[in-house]
Amino acid sequence: RRFMSYTHVLVTRPEPAVALITLNRPKALNALSSPLFSELNQALQVVDADDAVGAIVLTGSDKAFAAGADIKEMQDKTYANVFKNRFLEDWTLLSKIRKPIIAAVSGYALGGGCELALMCDIILASPTAKFGQPEINLGVIPGGGGSQRLAQIVGKSRTMEMVLTGRTISAQEAERWGMVSRVVGDGEGQVVKEAVEMANTIASKSQIAVQAAKEVVNAAYELNLAEGLHFERRIFYGLFATNDQKEGMAAFTEKRKPEFTHS
Ligand code: CAA
């Protein structure tokens, strides 16, 4: 069911509590143009603000999650132009979304496409997924966080290899390196199906606890250990002020399923 219409992204609700955002520039392998990103950001803000949505899945097509920033759009840009217009700065909105975002990646996730997947909270990959930072072949470097996020996730040597040679890595390699949580079964659409199921599981929990959990895990990438542990405990204490904590623990004691009210 489509509930809002955009040109470059499709937003559907495969489950009442799950929003599925599909990048939809198939002819350009979902190259991430400015109009596409602006629609993606709008769609993300709409679903983040929708109380009925508990988790989000972001996907592309079978052939391409996204083949990177739009090279044809970038080609004639000047330094002054990208500097003054803060080119790519709006990409950071995705990392400010409170609800969990699962990337379901099939086919190419290159350059900005790989970076977009890395900004999501969980990456599920189909066996056809290919990840890479090929910007070096274009005379530039990653600009959407790839060098930083990859270094945090897969370490220096692997990041240097990807960023300096532009080599594309397979789904299996990405799994071994810890970039993706799992490679899921064969077949068209299977990775999206599994991502939606995972999102639905997350959406069945207390939204407040889920969003708090996402916030504290992300803090591990920003804070040092002492600060992170302190932050986690404070947020944990705070959850005792919610009805969902009372409900979750009462349900356990009464041996029944919790009915969270997200309050
Ligand atoms: N930008 C603009 N258009 C793109 C694109 C991109 N990143 N990637 C693919 N396309 C377009 C192609 O130009 C082509 O359009 P036309 O039919 O009009 O010629 C169409 O999509 C299909 O692509 P191909 O014919 O190239 O398909 P293929 O199957 O032969 O190859 C591919 C697939 C290996 C992914 C190849 O398209 C490719 O190398 N794409 C570019 C990948 C890349 O360099 N990405 C990094 C971009 S820079 C960046 O992202 C900066 C950053 O950090 C933010």
TrEMBL record:
Coiled coil: none annotated. GO terms for biological process: fatty acid beta-oxidation. One of its GO terms (molecular function) is enoyl-CoA hydratase activity. This is Probable enoyl-CoA hydratase, mitochondrial. One of its GO terms (cellular component) is mitochondrion. Belongs to the enoyl-CoA hydratase/isomerase family. SUPFAM superfamilies: ClpP/crotonase. It is an enzyme of class 4 (lyase). PROSITE patterns: ENOYL_COA_HYDRATASE (PS00166).
